[in-house]
Automatic annotation (TrEMBL):
The lineage of its organism: Eukaryota, Metazoa, Chordata, Craniata, Vertebrata. Signal peptide: none annotated. Residues 307-358 form a coiled coil. This is NF2, moesin-ezrin-radixin like (MERLIN) tumor suppressor. GO terms for molecular function: actin binding. It is a peripheral membrane protein. Gene3D superfamilies: 1.20.5.450, 1.20.80.10, Phosphatidylinositol 3-kinase Catalytic Subunit, Chain A, domain 1, Pleckstrin-homology domain (PH domain)/Phosphotyrosine-binding domain (PTB). Keywords: Cell membrane, Coiled coil, Membrane. SMART domains: B41 (SM00295), FERM_C (SM01196). CDD domains: FERM_B-lobe, FERM_C_ERM. The gene is nf2a.
C-alpha cells in the first residue's frame, strides 16, 4: 500500500521490543492513548512520545495528526515512550507500579549514560538497589562471585575514578545488596528513585541559550521552576525562578522572556538557537507549571480512586509477601532440621563403621594369636596362672594326672 493510505510507527517502551502500528489520520492523542492502554498506564500526565526532528528532540503533540509532524512519510517512524515531566516527590506522587518502574528504568539509563551526574557513594548504593530489584534477596548459594560480571551498574566516570577491579566493585555492591533483604522489586526501585531525585541534574531538561549581552548560558526546566546555569556547571544554577514566582513566560521568534511576579525584578530575556527549541521550552514550561499547580490542589476523584486502589493492592501484596516469607522460613527451618538429621545419621554411620572395623581388626589379631600359640606350644601343654601378684606361679597341667 502507498504511504498516502497509511504509515507505520514503531513505539519503543523501556525494556521492551519496539512494536509497529499502522496509523491513518490518527492524532497524537490517539497513538498516545493506545500505548497507555496497552501497558495499563493511567498516570499518563508524566509521559509523552519522543522522536527526533531534524536532529533535535521533539515530543508528539496530542492535538496534531501524527503524519502532520515533521516525520518521515516513507520509512517507519520511531517514537520513544518516556517520562516528559518528573514528580517532585516520587513516593508521594506516583501511584501505579508501572509508572514507578518506567521512571526507574529511564532514570537508571540516564545515570549510566552520565546524563545525570551521580557521585560515587550514591552510585554504589543505587546500584545495589537496582540489583535487589532485578535479583530479589541475596543468596550466597545462588549469587556467587561473578554473578554481576555482565551487568552495567555504574557510570564509567565513577569506575575510572578509582583503581579497582570489576571484582572489587562487585564486592562493594554486593555488600550493600545483602542489606536490602526483604525488599520487593517496587520497594527497591522506589529507594533508588528517592536517592535519584535528590541529585542536582535529576529531571532537568537543559537548553543552550544566550542572554541579551550574548553570553552563553544554559537554561534548565524542571518540576520546581526555571534555572540559569553556567555552561561549565550544570549542578548549581546562577539564578532560579520558582514556578510560584513567575508571572508570565513568552517568546517571540527566537527571543524568550521570563517575567517574575515581583515587578521590581528585571525581566530575564534570552535567545535560543532555533524557533523549534523555543516551542519545546514553552511546552515543558506549560506542562511543568500545570503539574506544579495540580500538586497543590485537592486530588481529583480519578486520582483519589487510583490511590485507594493502589493502597489496597499494596496491602494485598504485603500480606502475600509476608505469607511467602513465612512459608520460606518454615521451609528453610525444615531443610535445616533435615540437614542436621542427615549429618547426625552420617556421623552415626561413620562411628558404626569405625567400631566395626575395630572389631574386625580385633578378631583378626585374636585369630592370629591363637594360630601362633598353637604352633609354639605342644598340643597337650597348657599353662595356667595361679595366684596373684608376686605369689603367682604357672602350673603345667600336663604333669597333673
Amino acid at each position: 500500500m502507498s504511504n498516502s493510505q497509511f504509515s507505520f510507527v514503531q513505539i519503543n517502551i523501556m525494556e521492551t521490543e519496539g512494536e509497529n502500528k499502522k496509523i491513518h489520520k490518527w492524532k497524537g492523542k490517539d497513538l498516545f492513548d493506545l500505548v497507555c492502554r496497552t501497558i495499563g498506564l493511567r498516570e499518563a500526565w508524566f509521559f509523552g512520545l519522543q522522536y527526533t526532528e531534524k536532529g533535535s528532540v521533539a515530543w508528539l503533540k496530542m492535538d496534531k495528526k501524527v503524519l502532520d509532524h515533521d516525520v518521515s512519510k516513507e520509512e517507519p517512524v520511531t517514537f520513544y515512550f518516556l517520562a516528559k515531566f518528573y514528580p517532585e516527590n516520587a513516593e508521594e506522587e506516583m501511584v501505579q507500579e508501572i509508572t514507578q518502574h518506567l521512571l526507574f528504568l529511564q532514570v537508571k539509563k540516564s545515570i549510566l549514560e552520565e546524563e545525570i551526574y551521580c557521585p560515587p557513594e550514591a552510585s554504589v548504593l543505587m546500584a545495589s538497589y537496582a540489583v535487589q530489584a532485578k535479583y530479589g534477596d541475596y543468596d550466597p548459594k545462588i549469587h556467587k562471585p561473578g554473578f554481576l560480571a555482565q551487568e552495567e551498574l555504574l557510570p564509567k566516570r565513577v569506575i575510572n575514578l578509582y583503581q579497582m577491579t570489576p571484582e572489587m566493585w562487585e564486592e562493594r555492591i554486593t555488600a550493600c545488596y545483602a542489606e536490602h533483604r526483604g525488599r520487593a522489586r517496587d520497594e527497591a526501585e522506589m529507594e533508588y528513585l528517592k536517592i535519584a531525585q535528590d541529585l542536582e541534574m535529576y529531571g532537568v531538561s537543559y537548553f543552550s541559550i544566550r542572554n541579551k549581552k550574548g553570553t552563553n548560558l544554559m537554561l534548565g526546566v524542571d518540576a520546581f521552576g526555571l534555572h540559569i546555569y553556567d555552561p561549565e556547571n550544570k549542578l548549581t544554577p546562577k539564578i532560579s525562578f520558582p514556578w510560584n514566582e513567575i508571572r508570565n513566560i513568552s517568546y517571540s521568534d527566537k527571543e524568550f522572556a521570563i517575567k517574575p511576579l515581583d515587578k521590581k525584578t528585571e525581566v530575564f530575556k534570552f535567545n535560543s538557537s532555533k524557533l523549534r527549541v523555543n516551542k519545546l521550552i514553552l511546552q515543558l514550561c506549560i506542562g511543568n507549571h500545570d503539574l506544579f499547580m495540580r500538586r497543590r490542589r485537592v486530588d481529583s476523584l480519578e486520582v483519589q480512586q487510583m490511590k485507594s486502589q493502589a493502597r489496597e493492592e499494596k496491602a494485598r501484596k504485603q500480606l502475600e509477601r509476608h505469607r511467602l516469607c513465612r512459608e520460606k522460613q518454615l521451609r528453610e527451618d525444615a531443610e535445616r532440621a533435615r540437614d542436621d538429621l542427615e549429618r547426625r545419621l552420617l556421623q552415626l554411620q561413620d562411628e558404626a563403621q569405625l567400631a566395626n572395623e575395630a572389631l574386625v581388626r580385633h578378631r583378626i589379631c585374636t585369630k592370629k594369636y591363637w594360630k601362633f600359640s598353637s604352633k609354639v606350644m605342644p598340643q597337650n601343654y597348657k599353662l595356667f596362672r595361679v595366684g596373684k601378684g608376686t605369689a603367682a606361679k604357672h602350673v603345667d597341667l600336663s604333669t597333673i594326672s
